Amino acid sequence: MPLLPSARAGTPVAVTGAGVVSPLGNTLAAFDAALFAGRSAVRAQSLDLPGIDLPPVPVAPAEFDSAAELAPSRVPLDRATAMALAAARSAAAAAELVPDGFDRDRLGIFWGSGMGGAATFEATCRTVYADRRRMRPTSVLTTMPNAPVAELALVFGARGAALGYACACASSAVAIGEAMRAIRAGWIDVAIVGGSESMLTPGVLASWQAMRVLAPIAAAGDAAAVAASCRPFAVDRAGFALGEAAAAFVLESPEHASSRGATLQFALAGYATNCDGVHITNPDSAGQARAMRAALGDAGLDPGTIGYLNAHGTATLPGDAAEAESIAAVFGARAVPVSSTKAIHGHLLGAGGAVELLAAARALAGERLPPTAHTGALDPSFAIDLVTDTARPAPGLRHVMSSSFAFGGTNAVLVASRA
Amino acid sequence: MTSSTFAALSSVLVEQFHVDAGAARPEATLDQLGLDSLALMEFVFAVEDRFNVRIPEDRLDPRQAGVTLAHLARLLDEAVAAKPPRDAAAA
Predict the structure, then answer these.
(1) B89 burial class (0-12, 13-18, 19+ CB within 10 angstroms)?
(2) Interval B41-62: pLDDT, tens
(3) How many CA atoms lie within 13 A of A53 on its CB side?
(4) Could you tell me the pLDDT band of residue A305, with boundaries at 50, 70 and 90?
(5) Cβ–Cβ of B45/A136 closer than 8 Å?
(6) CB contact A72 to B (< 8 Å)
């Protein structure tokens, strides 16, 4: 029996703008084109670590010039923060949010990041230990996990809240959901929300490789095989690629959105977060199922109303097995169409929840479901309806779900509805 | 103040701190160029690295935003002149 956390549970929050910087592109049009075609951005990257011989890893980089993004603080920007600014500026432009057009005491920033300024931190360590050069006076401000939050607050003049969330792969889903709660509770009217991550540096990539969760690729592998190396829910799945991205949304109370005549892109209908409380990496299907049921309860929706689930789907052996079990437990066997778009944009860690909510929202907008690329044969032990090969038409699609399950056991589930 | 020192200061300001080339005049103070105390410290670090010198801390408090570019250039010239020949001891 899901608990309704407040009297305003079930009240949708308006989403009036979205922006993205991602391996699939930096506009919604480019994102859609790759998403529905199942076009992979995964490629091989060699690990430049002197004296350590490691095989290359699969990565999904974004085409993005971080030098073009100016910081309001003038502090040098980590690449993830630059991506955050670009995505949030796009979202605000799409929402036609004019900085002086509303009460910024009632504007909040809610942002997720898994590893903060990991890439810059690694570079600064090289500066000290390898190059024997000094740390910059701004090193702390560039690498702190809330650097995107701080810069976004300056860009938009936010005075209501500026909060960063670090819960690994669930970070941005939690940030979005907590902003939704803050708006529902009446603490703020508007929020710039989302997440960013960029950590495709040798030290970070080698750390993930050492966990044996990255899809192995041959040293001299052909590009097509590397692009197809992440195969979620497949019988021959072998892990994921790491990607880099940022995605942002403008959230508003329905009253605020209508008072300024904003166009609703979609509605955020439900959110829940909980924790497995079992193991630092092994997922727990019972915890996941509780989170999905609680999000449905928060939205006031029955499982049968959900027309698409963008799964966490990391393509690891235990991860997909636990998730297939929890999906079947909540929705019934093969009862809801599922895909994992990580196959083409990689695991985006702190940005993952936001990018995957965007993928689910684009499914709502286009009334079609993105495929799980590269998954030829579904694991026969999984009782799920996996969308494979090509996009599936979904006329009349009304409600979608996106789930994020993190290291540390944090689960976060978002439900979005047609506006 | 040598003209090459001033030119190097200007190029750091333009390239790394997005200052208009025309605004970087010798008599301009760093706060007039829009550098707050934090940006000012980054700027001093950047020019020290460019010249491979350290300006002694008692000669320049980087929080003094009233410092002019001409003054900073003179301090750099002094620091360069005071520096021992490169790697003489290590050779």
Answers:
(1) exposed
(2) 888 888 888 888 888 878 877 6
(3) 1
(4) very high
(5) yes
(6) no
